[in-house]
Known about the structure:
By secondary structure, the protein is of the alpha+beta class. The protein folds into two domains: 25-66 and 123-369 and 386-404, no CATH class; 426-517, no CATH class. It is 50% helix and 7% strand. The protein has helices at 29-63, 69-83, 115-120, 124-136, 139-150, 153-165, 167-174, 183-196, 199-210, 216-230, 236-259, 276-285, 287-294, 297-307, 318-321, 325-333, 351-369, 387-404, 426-436, 487-499; strands at residues 5-6, 25-26, 89-91, 99-101, 444-446, 460-462, 471-475, 480-481, 484-485, 503-509, 512-517. The strands form four sheets. A five-stranded mixed β-sheet has the order 6-5-7-11-10, sandwiched between helices. Strand 8 (480-481) and strand 9 form a beta hairpin. Helix 1 packs parallel to helix 6 (153-165), helix 8 (183-196) packs antiparallel against helix 9 (199-210) and helix 8 (183-196) packs parallel to helix 10 (216-230). It is globular, with a radius of gyration of 26 Å. It starts with a strand and ends in a 26-residue tail after the last strand.
Amino acid sequence: MSRRRTNGARFEQQSGGLLLLGQAVELGEREMRMMMRRRALYVIGGAIIFAVVYALLSWLKYRAYMDARYDLGNMVQAVYNTAHGHFLEITTGDVEPRQMSRLGSHVDPILALFALPWLVWPSPVMLLVAQAAIVATGAWPSFRLATRVTRDPSAGAMLAGAYLLYPALGFLVLNEFHPVALATPLLLWAFLYMEEGRWLRAAVFLVLAAACKETVPLVIAFMGAYFALRKRSPWPIVVTALGAAWFASAVWVVIPHYNGGQSAFIARYGDYGSGAGEVAKNAVLNPVQTARDFLSASNLRYWLRLLWPLGFTSVLSPLTVLIALPEYALNALSTTVYQRRIEFHYTALEIPFLYAAAVLGVMRLWRWLGGGFRRAEGRMKGERVSRSTLALLVLACALAGNYFLGPLPFSLPGAAYDGSDYARTSHDVALDEAIALIPDGVAVSANNNAGAQLAARRVAYIFPYFEGADWVIVDQRHPFYYDKEDEALHAQALGQLVLDRRFQSVYAKDGVLVFKRVDAAGEPESPPDAVTSSPGADASPSP
C-alpha cells in the first residue's frame, strides 16, 4: 500500500478565517510514481495537440502570405544555401546587396542543423512545423520541473498546461521562424537539469541554446550566477564565465568578422551609443535615463501582458525572473517598439524564466497561505489552499490570457483572434499564380511579403533593388520598400522598373506584377537613382 506523510501540522480552524487550515499531505513514493505516469499522458497529449494546432496555424499564415522575407525568408535562404554547400549564406537587404554569412547578422549556427531535413522536405513549411514541434517539447521539462518543485504531479501537469497555453509562447511559434524560439524549450531543459544537479545533461542543452542567438549566452551567464546562489555552490560560476566569454566572442569577434563591422542592430540603441560596449556603459552610467526607459508606458504594458497570464505568480520569485535581465534590458531600451510586444519573438529568452519563476512562486504562495511567511516550510501551520488548486488558478489565467490576448482563433465574443485572421483571399491566389511563373534557382527580387516563398535560392534580393535580378515580383497592394511599407517610395521604385527596357511585364493581376529580364545588355531608360534610403534592421511585423 502507498503511504502518505504530512509535514506535522495539525488540522485546525482559525476563527474569522475564510478557509480551513488543514494538514499539508505529501504523496508517498509509490503513489507519486503512479500519479506521475498518469499525469504524464495528459502532458504528452497536450504537447502533441499544441504541435499540431500551431503547425497548422503556421501553415495557414504562410499560405496567406502573412510571413515575409523578413524574417522567414532570411532563414529559408540560409538553410537552403547550407544544404547546397554554402554555409549559412544569405543575400543582404542593403541598398547595395551582397552575399554574406548570416553569422554577420546573428550568431545562430543552430540553423545549419536544418539543412539535412531540408533535403528531405525542401519547403519553408518544414521550418514552421519543426519550430512548433520543438517548442512543444518544452511541456515535458515544464512538467518535471513543476512536479519536482510542488511534489504534486497534478499540480505539475496543470502548470505544464499553463506553459502550453501561455499567449506569448503561441505568438513565439507563429511569428514566422526564428532560431531563438528554439532556445525556449532548450533553456527549460537546462534549468531542470541544473535544478536536479545533473550538470553534464544541462551542458548539452546550454550549448544548443547558446547556438540559437548571440544574446542567449549572456542569459546563460546570469543563469549560472542564479544557480550558484540557489545551490550554494561555486561550480555554476563556470557556466557564468563560459557564457560571458561566448557572448563577448559572438558580439565583438564573430559578427564583425563576417559583417565587416558591428551588428546593424546596434542602431536600435542609438540613444545610448554607437557600439555594443558604449551602449552597455552608458546604460549603467546614466541610470535616470535607463530607469525612465524601463518604466515607459510601452514597457509597463508589455510586462503586464507577460505577467498576468501566469497569475502574477512569477513576481513571487524575483531572482528567477531576473535571469533574463539582459533580454529585458535589450527589449526595454530598444527604439524598436516590436521588442515590447508579446506578438513577436523577442519573448523567447524571457518565457523560460517567467515560467520557472511562476512554478517557484506557486510554492511560495502556498507556504505563505499556510502561515509560512518568512518561515521554513517545516514551520507552516498547515495547508489553507492545496498546491493543485493554485496550479489550477494559474492554468485558468493562462487560458484567459490566450483568449483575450493570444493567437488561438476562438471565434467567440471578446476573443483576440478568430478564423478570419488566418484566411486566404483572392489576392493570395494571384500571388500564387505569379510565383508559379518564376523558375527555381534564378536570381529574383521580391516584395517583402512574397519573399519567404521565393527565398530558397542562392541569390534573393528584396524590392526595390532589382539590378542583379532575372525576375521581379511586385505587390502594389502591399507597398513594401525593403521591410517597411511606404507607398511613395514603392511607387517611385516601381516606376523605374516599368521604364527599364531590360525588363518586360509578363503578369499583372489584382495589383501583383511580374517582370522578366529580356535583355541583359540593354540600358535602363531612367537609371535607378532613387534608392537612397537604407533598409532598417527591424523585422517587419507579421499581421
